[in-house]
Amino acid sequence: MKELIKDDNNFNDSITTLGKSLGATQLGFSDITILPENKRMGFIYGITIIVRLSEGILNQIEDEPTQTYFSHYRSVNRLIDQISLRISLFLEEQGYPSIAIPASQSVSDPDDAFTGAFQHKTGAVLSGLGWIGRSALFIHENYGPRVRMGTVLTNAPFQVGIPVTQSSCGSCRSCVTVCPAMAIEGRLWKLGTPRNELYDAFRCSQYMKDVFQHIGRGAVCGLCMVACPVGKK
Ligand code: SF4
Ligand code: SF4
């Protein structure tokens, strides 16, 4: 794979080519040193892998998630994990230890339950691809929340994007209104706003378990995602 490297000082082109050839919609590159060292596992850069969700499948969601959406959600997560793994293996082949963070993984953190080993959306806003909505979802500038993400952490050299620091939700409150669990507080995000000031992850999870148990054992909802006007056709 070494022949993929065209740029002299960084891996942007080669990783973008590799990621897209494997099915990624877009890749973003961020300097993550703004985060405490333990939150970034000592790494300097984040590579964000974006895969768009199917418009056709999301358009079927009305009052509750569908089985098709649940299957699609899992398939896209698996695809992202494959892409992240291939990118991390490629970087390791070039001499840079790297970690592929799974697309969907919760770790046991007493200070922040229902969070992953590294928050994909933090890498995504630092790479300049979008902002965090009132819903606490990542809102891609073109595709809205209709994406799934993965991250590779590495010290391989990259040219990085310009971080997004403010919400572009404006006066919209569609996700706040639609949430049946009343889990979304309605605040506007800015860089550094903790997730629990935007929405109550426990309330959201409990509602899904209680009401959508018959669909993917209560692992998905998606109502705030499909209500968002950004990226909706
Ligand atoms: S996923 Fe569903 S329950 Fe959770 S915040 Fe969004 S709309 Fe509310
Ligand atoms: S629905 Fe409106 S308020 Fe909610 S995340 Fe999307 S743009 Fe922001």
UniProtKB/TrEMBL annotation:
Keyword tags: Iron, Iron-sulfur, Metal-binding
Keyword hit for Iron-sulfur: yes
GO MF annotation list: iron-sulfur cluster binding; metal ion binding
Protein's organism: Acetobacterium paludosum
Limits of the 4Fe-4S ferredoxin-type domain: 160-185
Superkingdom of this protein's organism: Bacteria
Annotated protein name in UniProt: Epoxyqueuosine reductase
PROSITE patterns (alphabetical): 4FE4S_FER_1, 4FE4S_FER_2
InterPro entries: 4Fe4S_Fe-S-bd, 4Fe4S_Fe_S_CS
